[in-house]
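Q: Could you fold this chain for me?
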Amino acid sequence: MESIVNESVKQVPAMCIMVFIVVHFIRYIGKRDELLREIERDCHEVQKESNRCISRNSEAFGEIKSVMTNTTQVLQDISGR
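A: Sure. Below is the predicted structure, expressed as structure tokens.
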């Protein structure tokens, strides 16, 4: 029985180090998760803004195409006279 107690006492420093490492690892995981959530929020915001810009550009190109089509038709009408 005494040898079991002596062996247990010898293992206490290793156990303390193990607990220390696990605690710091868990803290690191928590900080990493927070950082990933921030990155996710930022990515979604950028994606939303990009989609809005693409939509506005598509509308503008549609208007430009309409103007170009009308201008082409007017020029054809003028040259046909």
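A (continued): The chain is about 100% helix and 0% strand.
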